[in-house]
Design goal:
This protein is mainly α. It is built from 14 helices and no strands. 71% of the residues lie in helices and 0% in strands.
């Protein structure tokens, strides 16, 4: 059977959108021209369109049905990245073409909600095995909810944004518990999927960005709590670096990019809120390091990637559920 391209590859567009958002967050503090972040947003938009095109073209020739890929225990949740990236692109577009950007955000939110509802209904059938759960399960509800809150607020849909924020926080609590159980008491993730552990770092940072968008850039108990959680989870990722360094390179490494970008952007917001002394050079260094890291990752991804490694890892991870 000719397989479709693994949905894990959509993390490329997600990471590039995260980098663009970090540049947008840093621009005011560094006094950068508005055009500069748009270079990165344009790259993210091109990557998103290119990825969709490649998936569609390969899908036409594949014998594997789209429905089967979406129901795949390991790959299915990753399809949520399509509308999530669209939300981010729409919010940026709204700065220059408000009506068009707002429409993109609304359509993407609706698509994400429909997909999340359908996917959760498949989980409730009771066929899912704990071994199939990984960090990507945060995407359909947590990422879509929290990114949706940030972007809906950016286009003036405040009540929708609060609703999305509630969805994101609720499922963040539920699914993080499930993912931690899977990681702690079940066999280790396949190497190609191990980078998805970095996704656990993203929710508090993205929730913090959404909170600032909803309430304004002011300090308070909620953003402070989210910042504290972000610090602990960031230290957890630092402690995991020896494990990550032993992994062979794969496109799965793109899972590191959006969480890192979200944390950097949240840090920028906090530095500005706290009016921290010396914040401009700190922001410049963090932004430069993030940009260099993503550029190196993109350069390593340019040679013909081994998509089979991702597909095999997905199938191995989901084997108990598929067998059932």
């Amino acid at each position: 059977m000719t397989q479709r391209i693994p949905l894990n590859t959509l993390a490329i567009g997600f990471g590039l959108a995260g980098l663009a958002e970090a540049w947008s967050a840093a621009a005011p503090a560094l006094g950068l021209p508005d055009l500069l972040p748009q270079v990165f947003w344009s790259i993210a938009a091109v990557a998103w369109v290119w990825l969709l095109t490649v998936h569609l073209v390969r899908g036409v020739r594949a014998t594997q049905r789209l429905r089967d890929q979406l129901r795949h225990p390991a790959q299915g949740p990753l399809a949520a990245l399509v509308p999530v990236i669209a939300m981010l692109l729409g919010a940026d577009l709204s700065r220059y073409a408000f009506a068009a950007g707002r429409l993109v955000v609304v359509v993407a939110l609706a698509a994400a909600a429909v997909f999340a509802g359908w996917l959760i209904s498949t989980w409730l059938q009771g066929d899912l095995e704990l071994e199939a759960v990984h960090g990507g399960y945060l995407l359909p509800t947590v990422a879509a909810g929290l990114v949706g809150a940030d972007t809906a607020a950016a286009v003036g849909l405040r009540q929708v944004a609060w609703g999305a924020f509630g969805v994101g926080v609720f499922f963040w609590t539920v699914l993080t518990t499930l993912i931690l159980l899977r990681i702690i008491i079940r066999p280790a993730l396949p190497d190609a999927l191990t980078p998805t552990l970095a996704i656990l770092l993203a929710p508090p940072a993205v929730a913090g960005l959404a909170w600032f968008q909803l309430t304004g850039p002011t300090a308070g108990p909620a953003p402070a709590a989210l910042a504290g959680l972000t610090v602990v989870l960031a230290l957890t990722q630092v402690a995991s670096l020896p494990r990550y360094r032993r992994l062979a390179f794969s496109l799965g490494f793109w899972s590191f990019t959006f969480p890192s970008a979200a944390v950097v952007a949240f840090t920028f917001e906090w530095l500005e809120v706290a009016a921290a002394p010396g914040r401009r050079p700190i922001i410049a260094v963090l932004l430069g390091a993030l940009t260099v890291a993503v550029t190196i990752l993109a350069a390593r991804s340019l040679p013909r990637p081994d998509l089979g490694a991702l597909s095999t890892a997905d199938d191995n991870d989901a084997a108990p559920a598929i067998a059932r």
